[in-house]
Amino acid sequence: MTVSLREGWTVLHGTLFGAALLLAFAGGLAGLYGLRPEWGAAPKIEKHILGLKIMVWGAALIAWGTVMTGTFIVYPWYGAAAPMSAEATLSPYDRLLANPVTADWNNFGMAWKQHVGWLAPIAATVVAFAVTYYGPQLAKRTDERRALMVFFVIAFAAAATAGVFGALLNKVAPIG
After folding, report:
1. Cα–Cα dist 173/93, whole Å
2. Is 88:49 a contact under the CB 8 Å cutoff?
3. Residue 58, pLDDT above cutoff 90
4. What is the pLDDT of residues 125-155, one digit of tens each?
5. Cβ 93 vs Cβ 143: under 8 Å
């Protein structure tokens, strides 16, 4: 079994970055939820904040890596015909639009990935910056912590939805 360059980048973008991103989001959300002053003394909260910073900054960096590789490496291949393929005359984009049943996959699914998918790294970076800025004070700031959890859930939902659309689009019209 061989993996083409395009398939390799697709696996890196969707599977490896995507899986790491979802794990980092889960860890960051659990860390935000678990940041409670009544659950521990100040040294415990400092240690908790350190782990939380690692998770949220990791999620933000992975999210940026995911959208950058998707936008600037994988997506251009979506509009180009695959080299040496059986359908080399048609790009995945052309194959989707040629079939009325799958045209909406492009019109909605790829549009989501192209536009709304960028919300994930932006929102994750907002959360990471706020966790770094507030630090241990965040344990006592319930409203701010709740707002950060909402931002993080929005980032997670945008990333997860883009990932599902990406997997389905790659199944219907692979780039490789």
Report:
1. 8
2. no
3. yes
4. 999 999 999 998 998 899 999 999 999 999 9
5. no
Give backbone dihedrals phi and psi of 175, rounded to 5 degrees, phi first.
-85, -15
Which residue type is seen at 98? A
Q: How many CB atoms lie within 10 A of CB 51?
A: 14
Contact 121, 64 (CB under 8 A): yes
CB 85 within 8 A of CB 149: no
**Token digits for 173?**
């019209």
DSSP assignment letter at 78: H
Residues 176/131, Cβ–Cβ less than 8 Å:
no
* Cα–Cα distance for residue pair 106/155, rounded to 1 Å: 22
How many domains does the chain fold into? 1
What is the residue range of 38's domain?
5-172
The identity of residue 36, as a single letter, is R
Q: What is the pTM of this model?
A: 0.87
Which amino acid, residue 141? R
Q: Which two tokens stand for residue 60?
A: 């933000």
Nearest-angstrom CA–CA distance, 145 and 18? 25
Cβ atoms 35, 145 nearer than 8 A: yes
